[in-house]
Specification:
The structure is a homodimer of 295-residue chains.
Chain A (H helix, E strand, L loop, with lengths): L2 H19 L8 H11 L6 H12 L8 H19 L8 E2 L2 E2 L1 H5 L1 H20 L8 H15 L4 H11 L6 H11 L1 H14 L4 H28 L2 H4 L5 H4 L5 H24 L8 H14 L1
Helix pairs in contact in A: 1-3, 1-4, 2-6, 3-4, 3-10, 4-6, 4-10, 7-10, 8-9, 10-11, 11-14, 11-15, 14-15
Chain lengths: 295, 295
Amino acid sequence: MNWERELAARAELINEGLDRYLPPASYYPPIIHEAIRYSLFAGGKRLRGALTLAAAEALGMKQTCILPAACALEMIHSYSLIHDDLPAMDDDDYRRGKPTCHLVFGEATAILAGDALLTLAFATLCRLKEEAFQPELIVQVIEEVAVAAGTKGLIGGQVVDLESEGRTPTPDLLEYIHLHKTGALFRAAVRVGALLAQADEQALSALTEYAVAFGLAFQITDDLLDLTGNKVLMGKAAKRDLAKQKATYPALFGLERTRELAALQVRKALQRLEIFDARAEFLREAARYLLYRIS
Amino acid sequence: MNWERELAARAELINEGLDRYLPPASYYPPIIHEAIRYSLFAGGKRLRGALTLAAAEALGMKQTCILPAACALEMIHSYSLIHDDLPAMDDDDYRRGKPTCHLVFGEATAILAGDALLTLAFATLCRLKEEAFQPELIVQVIEEVAVAAGTKGLIGGQVVDLESEGRTPTPDLLEYIHLHKTGALFRAAVRVGALLAQADEQALSALTEYAVAFGLAFQITDDLLDLTGNKVLMGKAAKRDLAKQKATYPALFGLERTRELAALQVRKALQRLEIFDARAEFLREAARYLLYRIS
């Protein structure tokens, strides 16, 4: 499998979905819809949405019918980036090689564009009903996403991350940040795909554990790339974590041990997929790719 | 009917619900849950939530089972106030007589508290399933709320309001702002109550028109109070609209004509309730109360 090509194919499907589920850029008032599209179509790899599709695929469900769920996850990811980049938060000027939303559209519009994407994500999840899913399942999926995006997930991680700047965190605190700030959405992305594909208890539990390990491995390798990568490759300023004294794995464990920790999580993720057949290959390659990025 | 007492009774029920549906203030990380509760329990009258309860009541449904919906509407209202008050938006220091969220907890936490309340609103709507509503109806309600809170509702109104500062708006533009910034959430509040109470088409359409007229009357009378009220009564600085050259009815039409426009909308709202019996009395009194506030 050429994983990057497979990912790109899924990203294209997701981009088409996003374009369809969002109001057009010209919809009144245009400024907010332009801001939403500027950030949402800034060249994200659609990894979260692709994992939603891939989890359902591993269980034999076709991609297109769960597209609203994949798109909703990407909207939430995009909202969280817009708000994270705000001057009052991480104060970042570049994201994926482009000026951040608030630099282009102003702070007020950026705040509202984030709010709008979060809101649109839930409206988009409701569109699963057009794909003839049981309404009960749709409510379960909406709850899963809302909890993952809330203070027991994404927002909780962001709060603790901001609180920890400039301090040396304990390993437990660092794990809390990563499991929540990055991990919660990966976990929800995979679980939503699995739930919509009617995963039985064993499959759901294996995919959930895969997602948690994947999310940790993703964040650990992201920390490494921030430290060792360059601006062109990353599309954002490198060594920002260091400059802001962010809680990171390399800062706590050093480079060598951090690489080992990433490899350990990837192994864990792959083990959890042993009960699945070849249809889980995209999920497997996704985990392997994380190690490839830092090799 | 002593309307203020009836409203207070509903507010108490809603406050109990909010306390139950929210993580406790001590839940980790406590700072965000403290910020959420600080703003949410800052003494709001719970008018939107009460209208949700009252719309269902007008159709003979008891209050308690639709409490999650009433609470979700109040969470969204509270999130919109926290974000509106931010320095990049309206830059307000006081709300309901207390320092605004970002003054007490800092801007980053205030942004995240707003995000969290919006997210929690959708998680709370999912709890309607505990009240044995049809999942199909719950999805319909979630979609109704998401659309009302999005760029075709609340956020659209906020964008145009910010864009219009310092300019003289046309009457059409002013109506757009009010119908969206304030009106969309009132409309959704009433419609959600009606939908959950299985309103037939005629009742739903009458209640929707009631809500739109009520929302306009509310905003017009709010504009009047901002101009003529005082800080102690309002709990926020008076004449802020004037200072910020906000688009308002009095600025466009003068005091006298603005009072007439409010009375006109209240009459319209009351007319729409003519098909209902005594159980719609709370809705009727709510509309009459708007005129009492400015008399």
